[in-house]
Amino acid sequence: MNSSEKIQVDELFTIYHKQIYQFIYRYTQDEMLSSDIVQDTFIKFDKYADKFDPSKSHIRTFLFRIAYQLTMTKLKRQDRFVKLLPFLYKKDQGDSISLEDKISIRTAIKKLPPEQRSVIIFSYYHDLPQQEIAEILQIPIGTVKSRLHTSLKKLKNLLEVDDNEEERYPR
C-alpha cells in the first residue's frame, strides 16, 4: 500500500473511530475490548481494502460490518452476550430522561436478544437507514424491519409492565 492510501486509512480512522467505538462499547460495556476491536477493524480494513467496492456500499457500512463481525466473534469466544447494554436515547434527549427512566430502559434492553439489540443501536443511536443496517449485518432489509418492529414491541411491553406494576403496588 502506498503512502497516499495510508493517509486515506488514517483519515477514515479519524472520521469513523469514535462512532465505531461507541457502538462497540454500548454493545460490550468493555472499554478495553472496544478499543481493541476498533483497532482490529482498521487493521482488517487495511488488509482487505481491495475488497471494498464503493458502488455496492458506503465506506461507513463496510467499516461497521467489519466492526460488527469482529465484535460478534470476540463476544462468542468470551461468552458475553448477557452483558448489560446501556440505555439508548438520542444525544439531544439525554438531559430530559430521568434516572429512573434510564434504569427502566436499561433493564428492558438487557432482555432483548443480541440481534435485536444491534438493530436498535444502529437505528436509534447511530441514526442509520434500514438499508445500511441490512448491509452491515448482512441480512435482508425485511429482517431489519421485522427485528425493529419486534424489539420495539418488546420494549414497549416491558416498559408498560413496569409502569403498571408501580401503579398497582404504590410505595
UniProtKB/TrEMBL annotation:
Pfam families: Sigma70_r2 (PF04542), Sigma70_r4_2 (PF08281). CDD domains: Sigma70_r4 (cd06171). Signal peptide: none annotated. Residues 12-80 form the RNA polymerase sigma-70 region domain. Residues 104-155 form the RNA polymerase sigma factor 70 region 4 type domain. Belongs to the sigma-70 factor family. ECF subfamily. InterPro entries: RNA_pol_sigma-70-like, RNA_pol_sigma-70_dom, RNA_pol_sigma70_r2, RNA_pol_sigma70_r4_t2, RNA_pol_sigma_r2, RNA_pol_sigma_r3/r4-like, WH-like_DNA-bd_sf. The keyword Iron does not apply. It comes from the Bacteria. The keyword Transcription regulation applies. This is RNA polymerase sigma factor. The lineage of its organism: Bacteria, Bacillati, Bacillota, Bacilli, Bacillales. SUPFAM superfamilies: Sigma2 domain of RNA polymerase sigma factors (SSF88946), Sigma3 and sigma4 domains of RNA polymerase sigma factors (SSF88659). Keywords: Sigma factor, Transcription, Transcription regulation.
